[in-house]
Design brief:
The protein is an alpha/beta fold. It has 17 helices and 15 strands. The strands form 3 sheets. Strands 8, 9, 10, 11, 12, 13, 14 and 15 form an 8-stranded mixed β-sheet that branches. It has a 5-stranded parallel β-sheet with strand order 4-1-5-6-7, sandwiched between helices. A hairpin with a 2-residue loop joins strand 2 and strand 3.
């Protein structure tokens, strides 16, 4: 990550947030919304130990074009980290390591109270200057250095609430879209998916039981398990149904081979299929002919739409193989539903940082399910919500929830490093995420920590006929 601005401030006093922290957060939000990569410790860092903390600070101070020093009190400017930051940055300027500028945003104090090293820089009084005005001046200063705000500045997402940042998008430059880097064959993923499948069963069955009740009069129920992975979840969800045929489709051949190996149900079959193939209908027809299927009664998908580059196209494609009175069932999470307390904001920081990962999937797709289904012509749309939380969980159950929700978050960085092993920025991001996840795993084990999320399961019918 390359930064243009560094915000230096005193974070807490007597374990209470300072006014300086509030001002820093407002200016950080203003700059990031305008595409300026800004080093703000409450989002960029947390306490991993002094050595790691210092290294990340030093790296940022070697590259930023502007430092903003906030000090509502004289003693805040002399606090350990604040003083270290502005003195180091000033020394970088004096040593011609960088061509930087320092801006101060100060409380009511005599100039004699301001440290000598900060007296001769552009300063704004906190009592008479809004944070936005300071942000505008920083943008002006960057512009004079040839650093423009906007899309060219590689914008970062910001946070709202516990983890409800801006809706992640698959849109890229020129309106093209990209699929996520997710890989179900990634090391340890089979074990995690199995764990996840067990935990998500109550959520899925809210939709599955509803649909099977509607299909109770069918002699045979034909089920398409899309993005089936190892096939474990699809087989389990419909295990009580005797008169069924399941066809699982996935794009990963190695995973399909494992699904066939694990399968003991003669009525379950697994085939390769790209849900976004230009020849989807022809390829699907060949699969259906192979098993004597005229149309599917149920299409089931767990966490599949967030990984494809065009969910709308996938939903349209699936309509072509669904009976007129057939149903779709899709399970999705949405990180905007995450609620956490007792972690000092760590869950929110991990979620926010994760949005920057290369090839990231859509972490906010759950809220879009209804719209996507309605936009592709599905009827009788119903969303079931299942609230999962740690309040009644023992230690092992908490660890299982942590692994299910957070342990995979290094994969996207590792996949990018496979493509470009020399990418030092990604290496730093991976280091940060590893340290964050180690800390978060400790937090999840603490009885006083509480975490909750709402799992969404959408059910819809192809037509009203």
């Amino acid at each position: 990550m390359s930064y243009q601005v560094f915000i230096s401030f005193k974070n807490t006093e007597n374990k209470e947030n300072t006014q300086d922290r509030q001002l820093a957060e407002q200016i950080y939000a203003y700059l990031t919304e305008r595409g300026i990569n800004t080093f703000y410790s409450n989002v960029t860092l947390f306490d991993f130990g002094q050595a790691s903390y210092k290294q990340h600070i030093d790296d940022a101070l070697d590259e930023v074009a502007v430092m903003l020093v906030i000090g509502s009190k004289r003693e805040f400017l002399h606090s350990k980290w604040c003083r270290y930051e502005w003195e180091t940055y000033q020394q970088n300027i004096l040593s011609n390591i960088i061509e930087g500028d320092i801006i101060t945003y100060l409380g009511d104090m005599d100039m004699s109270e301001v440290p000598t090293g900060l007296r001769h820089y552009q300063s704004f009084p906190i009592s008479a200057t809004q944070p936005q005005t300071v942000g505008e001046f920083i943008l002006h200063t960057l512009n004079k250095k040839g650093i423009a705000a906007g899309p060219t500045a590689n914008p970062q997402p910001t946070l709202s609430g516990a983890a409800g940042g801006p809706v992640a998008s698959t849109e890229c430059e020129f309106g093209t879209k990209q699929a996520s880097y997710y890989d179900s064959a990634f090391s340890g993923e089979y074990k995690r998916l199995k764990l996840q499948g067990e935990a998500m069963r109550p959520s899925d069955m809210m939709g599955v039981d509803y649909v099977l009740e509607q299909l109770a009069d069918r002699d045979t129920v034909y089920i398409l398990d899309v993005g089936c992975g190892y096939g474990v979840v699809g087989r389990d969800r419909f295990s009580a149904l005797q008169n069924k045929v399941i066809v699982g489709v996935d794009i990963m051949d190695s995973v399909l081979a494992k699904a066939r190996e694990l399968n003991t149900d003669p009525n379950a079959h697994y085939e390769h299929l790209d849900l976004l193939s230009e020849d989807f209908e022809d390829e699907m027809e060949m699969i259906m002919d192979k098993y004597g299927i005229d149309g599917f009664d149920v299409v089931f998908g767990a966490y599949i739409l967030q990984h494809v580059s065009d969910p709308i196209k996938v939903l349209r494609n699936l309509r072509s193989c669904l009976k007129k009175d057939g149903y779709v069932i899709f399970r999705q999470s949405d990180e905007g539903t995450y609620i956490a307390y007792g972690d000092d904001g760590l869950v929110a920081k991990v979620c926010e940082r994760y949005l920057r990962a290369p090839g990231i999937d859509d972490r906010y797709l759950g809220r879009k399910l209804y719209h996507f289904l309605e936009a592709t012509g599905y009827k009788r749309i119903n969303l079931f919500g299942n609230f999962i939380n740690t309040s009644q969980m023992d230690y092992d159950e908490r660890m299982a929830l942590y692994k299910m929700r957070f342990s995979l978050r290094t994969m996207y960085y590792k996949k990018e490093l496979e493509r470009d092993p020399s990418n030092t920025a990604i290496k730093k991001e991976l280091e940060w995420m590893k340290a964050a996840l180690d800390k978060l795993q400790e937090v999840f084990g603490a009885p006083s920590f509480w975490f909750g999320e709402t799992m969404l399961v959408a059910v819809a019918r192809k037509t009203d006929l």
